[in-house]
Every structure is written in structure tokens, then in C-alpha cells.
Write a sequence for this structure.
């Protein structure tokens, strides 16, 4: 908003452009705060809930943007391409952000700004029953290698966005090293204060359509 902003990706730049055009946005700030989190392939939500934000040291996660709305509400936005939203290290950060926002009263939103498409939109994407059944069969045998997941995607006509939604909806764990999808642990992605995020995503999409029109 009439200031110089640094961005790390095209998606972040697109987000700033959307925020500039959205009348419900009063102000925004890039990389506003560092939130400690405990990387874990186990119960990430439980681990995050044990953190003392003022004193904990170790890995810290920095949300991309903090947004103040004209109605007085505020939220953090994390920008991620929809095809990578479900990676385990990203989900761990969402959980830490959600816990922080629950503790402090902020809203939060994970967004692919090229749509814009919110995390909740991706989670809601359906997949073919054949793909679901194929994944269940293989998950009963253990972690599913990425090449097997890709083959099931091709057979079932499942896109990367739909796969990401499926992984988060079914609470599976997708790691890049090793590149595989495995059965869920106790970790659950808390829904958190979705309302502010969903509403802003809709407003951003509307502002984008009006600007292009």
C-alpha cells in the first residue's frame, strides 16, 4: 500500500497485488512474525501446543503476510502452490500457525494466490473412488512410494491439486525425503478459525475479477 515490499516468489507478488485491490484490506505487512514450531512426523498439533512462544528456541516459521481488515479483524496468510500444500513440512507449519492463532485470536489462511484458491478449497476437491480404493489397499501394506502414487493418479485421472486435498482430508503424511505417502499418525490438521480466511479468499477472487473486467 504505497510502499516497497520484498517477495520471494511470483505467488507472493500476486498476493500483494490482490491485497492492494481488495477494499476490505486496511493494511498488510510481509514476514510479520517468527513462530517457533517442533518439526515432527508424529503428533505435530500436540507438539505445537507445548510451545512457549516467548522462550522457545529452535526452528521458527515465518508466515508470508499479516493483514489488517477494515472491520478490525486481523489474520496471517501463508502462500503455497496448491500442488504442494499437503507436504508434511508445510502441514507442520500450518498446525503451528493455527495453534498460535487460536492462542492469540488471529485468523489464518493458506492460499494459492494464482486462483486465488484457499487451503479449504483444495481439501474439498473430490477424487475418483478407484484412486481412493487403490490408495487404501497399498497403505495397508505400508508407505506408498511416489511412483506408485503417480501411477494411481494417472489411472484415476487425479490432478496434483486433488491429490493434495485427498492427502489432507484423509490425514495422510506426504514426505519428499523419502518421496512417499504413508498412513496417518495421531497428527490432525485442526480446522482453526477458518471463517476469516475463507471470507478473504472470496473477496480477493472478486477483486481480481473486477480488476480484470
Amino acid at each position: 500500500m504505497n510502499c516497497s515490499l520484498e517477495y520471494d516468489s511470483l505467488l507472493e507478488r500476486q498476493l500483494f497485488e490482490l491485497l492492494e485491490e481488495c477494499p476490505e484490506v486496511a493494511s498488510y505487512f510481509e514476514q510479520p512474525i517468527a513462530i517457533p514450531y517442533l518439526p515432527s512426523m508424529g503428533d505435530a498439533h500436540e507438539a505445537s501446543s507445548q510451545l512457549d512462544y516467548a522462550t522457545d528456541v529452535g526452528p521458527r516459521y515465518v508466515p508470508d503476510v499479516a493483514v489488517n481488515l477494515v472491520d478490525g479483524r486481523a489474520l496471517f496468510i501463508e502462500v503455497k502452490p496448491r500442488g504442494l500444500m499437503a507436504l508434511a513440512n508445510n502441514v507442520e507449519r500450518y498446525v503451528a500457525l493455527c495453534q498460535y492463532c487460536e492462542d492469540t485470536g488471529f485468523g489464518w489462511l493458506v492460499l494459492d494466490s494464482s486462483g486465488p484458491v484457499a487451503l479449504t478449497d483444495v481439501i474439498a476437491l473430490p477424487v475418483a473412488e478407484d484412486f481412493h480404493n487403490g490408495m487404501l489397499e497399498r497403505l495397508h501394506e505400508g508407505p506408498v512410494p511416489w511412483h506408485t502414487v503417480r501411477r494411481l493418479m494417472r489411472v484415476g485421472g487425479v490432478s496434483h491439486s486433488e491429490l493434495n486435498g485427498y492427502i489432507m482430508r484423509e490425514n495422510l503424511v506426504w514426505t519428499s525425503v523419502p518421496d512417499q505417502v504413508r498412513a496417518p499418525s495421531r497428527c490432525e490438521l485442526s480446522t482453526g478459525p477458518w471463517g476469516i480466511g475463507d471470507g478473504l479468499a472470496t473477496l480477493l477472487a472478486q477483486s481480481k475479477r473486477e480488476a480484470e473486467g
